[in-house]
């Protein structure tokens, strides 16, 4: 599955060269889905290995670092030549640094973390970073389909795309705690609204896929402040439980 995801990233680069940006964007989304499945499948089959972890990181670098940068460069950033290539280069470099940080943690060995920290990533993960950085492309394709040329040209402007790329690049190498959703438990009182929201998003994805993908990026970025707040709240609660309780002693009776 990792090899299949790598091939999706390589073909996406080819489509970007040919100006077939819709197909290139779809392949990056498919690579993100595969990346979410291959690790879980390996753990389920008890087939995890260091080779698999290294290969997965190399595939992630190409699919979510190099490919999105080249897609956006050929889509609009090449209009600014060297200045337009700089954000694409920065995004790929930051993605490489993020994945190198992850591989370095593997060499150190298993790190004992507080229980609450296992539900959080450090920084925006690679697939989410690729989806967020392609937000201008998703939005531009949607505006082009709905015959809004002014808005389509606005989101395609290299200045806007460059700001998005630099911002997402910084988020990938940041130390912000972001929800991993690996052991996420849905409270009972929000199960029904969550199911309804999921159904509405699936319907929008089928009817207007570019609009749905753009909204998913905005929704994910909007969750980051709540993720940080949740992490800090859990950290305070854990530290509060570890603080020793001081019991004041009253005056002792009797002779010393």
TrEMBL record:
InterPro entries in the record: CDP-OH_P_trans, CDP-OH_P_trans_C, CDP-OH_PTrfase_TM_dom, CDP_ALCOHOL_P_TRANSF_CS
* Taxonomy, superkingdom: Bacteria
Domain CDP-alcohol phosphatidyltransferase C-terminal per the UniProt entry, residue ranges: 190-225
Question: Is Phosphoprotein one of the keywords?
Answer: no
Q: What is this protein called?
A: Phosphatidylcholine/phosphatidylserine synthase
Which keywords are on file for this protein? Membrane, Transferase, Transmembrane, Transmembrane helix
Q: Which PROSITE patterns does this UniProt record tie to the protein?
A: CDP_ALCOHOL_P_TRANSF (PS00379)
Q: Name one GO biological process term.
A: phospholipid biosynthetic process
Which source organism? Neoroseomonas soli
> What Gene Ontology molecular function terms does this protein carry?
phosphotransferase activity, for other substituted phosphate groups
Write out the similarity annotation: Belongs to the CDP-alcohol phosphatidyltransferase class-I family.
User: Is Transferase there in the keyword field?
Assistant: yes
The transmembrane residues are 82-100, 120-144, 159-178, 190-207, 213-232
Annotated Gene Ontology cellular component terms:
membrane
